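#struct-pred

JT: dropping the chains for the assembly here, can someone run the whole complex?
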Amino acid sequence: MEQTVAAPIVFETHPSQYRHWKLTFDGPVATLGMDVREDAGLRDDYRLKLNSYDLGVDIELADGIQRIRFEHPDVRVVVLTSLKERIFCAGANIFMLGGSSHGFKVNFCKFTNETRLAMEDASAHSGLKFVAAINGICAGGGYELALACDEILLVDDGNSAVSLPEAPLLGVLPGTGGLTRVVDKRKVRRDLADVFSTVAEGVKGKRAVEWRLVDAVHPTSRFRDEVQRRARELAAGSDRPEGARGIELRPLNPVISDNRIDYGVVDVMIDRPRRLAELTIRAPEAPQPSTPEGILQIGDQYWPLRAFRALDDAILRLRFNEPEIGTVVVRAVGDPVNVLACDEVLAEHRDHWLVREIVRFIARTLKRIDLTSRSFFALIEPGSAFAGTLFELALSCDRAYMLDDPDRPNTIALSTMNQGACRMSNGLTRLELRFLGEPARVEAAFAHEGPFDAQEALDAGLVTFAPDDLDWDDEVRLAIEARAALSPDALTGLEANLRFAGPETLETKVFGRLTAWQNWIFQRPNAVGERGALKTYGREGRPEFDWKRC
Amino acid sequence: MEQTVAAPIVFETHPSQYRHWKLTFDGPVATLGMDVREDAGLRDDYRLKLNSYDLGVDIELADGIQRIRFEHPDVRVVVLTSLKERIFCAGANIFMLGGSSHGFKVNFCKFTNETRLAMEDASAHSGLKFVAAINGICAGGGYELALACDEILLVDDGNSAVSLPEAPLLGVLPGTGGLTRVVDKRKVRRDLADVFSTVAEGVKGKRAVEWRLVDAVHPTSRFRDEVQRRARELAAGSDRPEGARGIELRPLNPVISDNRIDYGVVDVMIDRPRRLAELTIRAPEAPQPSTPEGILQIGDQYWPLRAFRALDDAILRLRFNEPEIGTVVVRAVGDPVNVLACDEVLAEHRDHWLVREIVRFIARTLKRIDLTSRSFFALIEPGSAFAGTLFELALSCDRAYMLDDPDRPNTIALSTMNQGACRMSNGLTRLELRFLGEPARVEAAFAHEGPFDAQEALDAGLVTFAPDDLDWDDEVRLAIEARAALSPDALTGLEANLRFAGPETLETKVFGRLTAWQNWIFQRPNAVGERGALKTYGREGRPEFDWKRC
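RK: done, full complex below.
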């Protein structure tokens, strides 16, 4: 029977509240030790045996990595290891998956994928390297977690292996990036990857190195030392600041009622009868600091960080807790000048460690929106603050409507934050994507002096429609109503295709190719039917398959 | 109720037998006129109204394009148009889709996608350009067919529009490349594409040009002349030979029994209890011509064309008529020297129009295998002919086993046909893909003198395993048995991911991203449930949706 999660899922946590991980520090090396509490799953219809994980475990992991980035700038390497004997991680909990609704499975995988991509983002952009110290059996999602690290070290104890047993044991895919990272990131030969991914017992020892599945194996007696040695070597190559003090990420404390989540800087109104959320983000009202020192001083209250932390949390809550809300109307209100002032500071000090982290956080939040299976319509009305970073939010939307009323001035503006700081998963800026067919229009948009009024924005191709005040109400209302009437599945597929024109990267392949196939399999009776492999796992009897290939 | 096709589907046809298309010629311009016979569908539970199509219609289209390439080398431009009044094409027949099994829908879309990609292949490699002359309503698959053309001309009669009504009307995607080609090929802006793909009525006239959906619109009075004018212009830029005589593609005449399809040069044995096909391709026995003139003389009996036409037909029959056959064991037998001799001729005369067509045909057939949702294992045994073009077939397989028995010589060999003539959909050669992580090994393989014995092949990374004669039987048998025991759906997803490492192209995006999502939607109750949009279309009442977004 499918269980649903009754209580809303909360995405904020703190190391002091972790139930599954221990975060420790030793100079430039932090260790995230996995020690999953069997009885502390998000639901009570499964037990988290053998360091298997559910969403709650991954929320803590995501929090830990985030805090290392912001709160511990002196950390240069994160070692991921197990605090249990003989088991590193058994992957996502099968009974949790078996008892989850399709939508929950899809969103669970999306979140865990984003957590792993955040590790790779930290490695690529923040000088924070990750070492998987696999000190025991490492299966499925456990190996996928290792694959997200820069280096994978495996203990050579005659028993510990890495494996992707999803296909042979469960009839599903290693869908948290596993297949993609094996061949695309680690560049395991396709035929060896085929063998590896179809044998439940996996590969260990020297063969694991030869097949490129791990970077090195070390005997038990030397394993701990070798991990530390390699961690120190990687730390030496990092540009993370020495002796810098971090900022604390304090609780967001949204005010939550039945139909509203209010963070102050971000406000989400839920209109269930219309299956609509109205999300409003507010530009800063007070002047913001103009130096890294000033930003450090106010820390998580610095507007760009405060606003995007709230936005990120709101998006996650919508995804998991409001599945029937199909359309999100996005507004930005306040003085766009204050947004552009922040953007200037972010650009000027882009090499400062904290500014770098803030910008990367904004970029990841915008990517989270690109990947959110809801329709986003930006409404640009008089008093709107869609400038620079906030205009990037409008560019993330499926459409943008801008009111064209000469009596009520209404403008948008670009900044350097639209020029490459917030690239999408496919490596393009949102303006490059927008003008794939007319690249000169990107330059033309930046050559424009000052803000764009509605007609200029329309001519420049920056908004979809610019109705006048006579048409505005009807046109916007009809568009929202029409959207709400469409098949939610068709929209999910439509948006996943139209949002990602142009090149594909490892990252987009994980969400496009791999996830789309996994979601397909997650619907198939061979996996989720009463005799499907995912349902029969751990029970008596073998799965029964319909042998037809599609 | 889902209907299955009782009689095996046959993929060979001939213009003299077409029921749905008229192929006519006027100098360098051929016209494929669509005039679908309502009562001539492949099944009798639907009528092909309004130039809607089913697999039978597409088999004729594929045949027509193939024959233009081989039989009419003087043709430089193909005009695709409708012979009916006011309707160009209404797309894939909805009632056919509604009544088809999931597997049939998936394979139907795969085939139609391959037909459209064959048009783009002809445009890119054979100097054959395509003009869609849209002389009436053009919806869904009709517009997707137009999108595969080099130019799209739309009549401006106040009524004729292009549209992708799949999402709004049917709750599915325009899955025959539509969404991908709109944003990736024609580079329609994503927000405009979003609007276009969600309004059932589509876009017509000047707006269709402004949004880049079509290349030009012309009033009814001038439409026919403008199409001809543009066709002649495109013809002038083609390098197709003037006054050349084509070769006839005659029937393959396979001998078919219950468990065997025997083309002579290719032989497929079906072992249903083991869900296994054993496919054997035979190297040429007699010497093959060494000049284009000689090839022209024997035409479709020239070994490379004969062998790959048979192989292509065999793969299509397996896909549609033998859905439970999950594994294909591939053997090549005969003298590899004869294969390499052909390869030399193909390389030397690569610029000759017919050689070019033959090589492109081989390349397309190999791509068809890459995209076939069955596991392929190459078995390289003494007497095998896996050299050059035939070794490319082994490289297409998920694994290759090569017997290492010093007493029975067994070799493989490379040729120029492994060096770029047969690139995969993702633009890589199969050796480049294989050695994504160690590109120097591609060069090393080509630097090797002469054929590789089993140990050399294993060391060079060209085969997966090289068991000796003691282990061979057991190891191969166990591998095949283990494969046959796995979930067919998990294997489909696994192979779709592991086979396509590296870059993605429009072509791979159509099959990876778009198709995977479409297949997901084709499983969802919102589309195919009793009250799903695909089932309720044309009946009374509206679809009922589960509004949860995934």
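JT: nice. Residues 1-5 of chain A have pLDDT under 50 and may be disordered. Chain A touches chain B through 93 residues (CB under 8 Å).
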